[in-house]
Amino acid sequence: MQPEATTEREVIIVGTGFSGLAMAIALLRTGVKNFLVLERAQEVGGTWRDNHYPGAACDIPSHLYSYSFEGKPDWSRKYPRQPEIKAYMQHTARKYRVLDHIRFGTTFRGARFDAAAGKWHVDCGERQFRCRFLVLGTGGLSEPAIPALPGAATFAGPAFHSAAWDHAVALDGKRVAVIGTGASAIQFVPQIAPRVKQLDVYQRTPPWIVPRDDRPFTALEKFTFAALPFVRKLYRELIFWHNEYQGIGIFKPDLMKGAEALARRHIESQISDPALREQVTPRYAMGCKRILISNDWYPALARPNVSVVSGAIGSIGADTITTADGVARPADVIIYGTGFQATALLQNADIVGPGGVALKERWAAGGEAYLGTSIKGFPNLFTITGPNTGLGHNSMIYMIETNVNQILETILVARRRNARRVEVKPEVHDRYNSELQRDLTGTVWQSGCRSWYQTDSGKITTMWPGYCFQFGRRARHFRSGDYIVE
Questions:
Q1: Closest C-alpha among 367, 434, 410 to residue 139
Q2: Does residue 5 register a pLDDT over 70?
Q3: Interval 98-104 mean pLDDT
Q4: For the structural domain made of 152-207+247-336, what CATH number should be given?
Q5: What local confidence, expressed as pLDDT, does residue 431 receive?
Q6: Which of 353, 350, 379, 335 is nearest to 486 (CA)?
Q7: What is the DSSP string of 58-85?
Q8: Distance from C-alpha of 119 to C-alpha of 12, rounded to nearest angstrom
Q9: Which of 159, 170, 178, 249 has the most crowded CB, counting CB atoms within 10 A?
Q10: Residue of 455 and 20 predicted with greater confidence
Q11: CA–CA separation, 315 vs 155, rounded Å?
Q12: Would you place residue 387 in the very low, low, confident or very high pLDDT band (cuts 50, 70, 90)?
């Protein structure tokens, strides 16, 4: 018998980032209203709600980092900043009446498939749900990664991750230690460097950085985008294809040499100290790790109150950080800019399929899915931007919309056939992932560096080994021959 506390819907979506909102809107636009969206926070926004650190911004142009069906003619600048992206997402959620379907303050803990009923039992602690189709829009960059450093628990001062920025901590006049030099750190370090007494930036490996061609849009441009929507759409298309062209260096690493020369000139133009210049110059192929864009990172590192520390961290004390060479540096505050658990996708949730198979065990050696959405042995379950859908050259919104369209078509086919379960054929799933790993061979991501693109064993589980249009051509629509529909 179904417990009274259990809420049942045909579709349950987890997350209200770009993925979850896109899925909810797709259902509503198709006339499917019997669904719920579960959100652990108290407002929509996903990554762009949680990452509110100083200087937070996107490295994809605003007109491309937005839904294709919901253009915004009045973006304030070429590269959008966090408050404007968050406001755009909240506006979109209100406009399409998604808020009526969201249960805020509801943390997804796991789900178990009832094979007899063909439904998922969703566990959210005190709240329980049941659904026919479960769509996970939790994203790959939602769980912060904090390294297990010896003595970290003994640190007496404030310590927080950039994705959980504590604005109540006063940094002015403090000795601040920043651990990590990834995409978040290069944005917030220039913002806090002028305020602090001393800033030590602990660097494992330096990132490749190119200039950020950012500027505000003029009033005339905004007027034109609003008055002539085809101009805005054309502008969006031009950005997309320009980015696709730039992706050629990822798949043919030898072509990255020109971009590396540009990045080195960027360093030389902004850092005059030869020792510091040497310290921040990467020694691996450009693109092997995420390429970053910034105009103020190198000037921030060149400030007299900023030091770049390249030695490995040996231990943390009550008010010091000691590197492996034995040098102890004082610290009042620690900020972790150490990224996210990108390869540990859904490892914090207990998702159990038919026969008691746990997803975290199935993915122990690295996540695998068919076209980023369907997982072998897990019927009626879909992920948006699941394994191997990440990009190093273009907008993830394209990948999200591609996944959402395929999931929508799959659900609609199952509804028309009154199917109890739909799942990818095991042989289709395995053949696809075998081909995918083969196609990743020779890409710049396998050129020798270590990155969050890879598992500990070196398997790349995050990146798509091709162009966006190739993924769209293959993954946008439901292919009945690839699925078991009962």
A1: 367
A2: no
A3: 97
A4: 3.50.50.60
A5: 97
A6: 379
A7: -SS-TTTSS-TTS--TT-SBSS-BHHHH
A8: 11
A9: 178
A10: 20
A11: 10
A12: very high
